Amino acid sequence: GSYERFMAILLEKTAGWLPLWLAPEQVRILTINDAVAEYAKKVQSILDNVVLMEPLKYNELRYSLDDRNESLGRKIRDAVELKVPVLIIVGPRDAANGQVSVRTKEGEKTIALTELESFLKSV
Questions:
Q1: Residue 109 contacts residue 59 (beta carbons within 8 Å)
Q2: Long-range contacts of 56-65 (CB under 8 A, 24+ apart)
């Protein structure tokens, strides 16, 4: 019916890269090694409090943590195949500096952990 045609047009137009507010999994946290597990929990606690208000109100952030014993390249490749809009990469240097690396389709940037919530609301 019409829903199926609409979804087909949307997926074709966006090449599968749905907007952040519509993506089934909006953010994925990728850890470089097991040493940053505690810092990844800090990032998760921040993401638990993020609620997107535009274009839909009260859209709680949907995220997952990838802490598998795989290389970072493999984790990134898996997330890109699933077309996750925002990847948060956490490593020992990030934990020491209180920041995270955020990767989107537009590129990768490093932001402070305190600015993560406002960054995600602006994406």
A1: no
A2: 56/21, 59/21, 61/26, 61/27, 61/120, 62/23, 62/24, 62/25, 62/26, 62/27, 63/25, 63/26, 63/27, 63/28, 63/29, 64/25, 64/27, 64/28, 64/29, 65/28, 65/29, 65/31, 65/40
With beta carbons less than 8 A apart as the criterion, state whether 18 and 83 touch: yes
Which amino acid is located at 113 in the chain?
Answer: L
Q: Which two tokens stand for residue 7?
A: 């979804």
For residues 61 and 74, the answer to whether their CB atoms sit within 8 Å is no
| pTM, two decimal places | 0.91
Question: In terms of Cα–Cα distance, which of 109, 108, 76, 112 is closest to 96?
Answer: 112
**pLDDT tens-digit readout, 61-89:** 999 999 999 999 999 999 999 999 999 99
63-66 and 27-31: which strand pairing? parallel
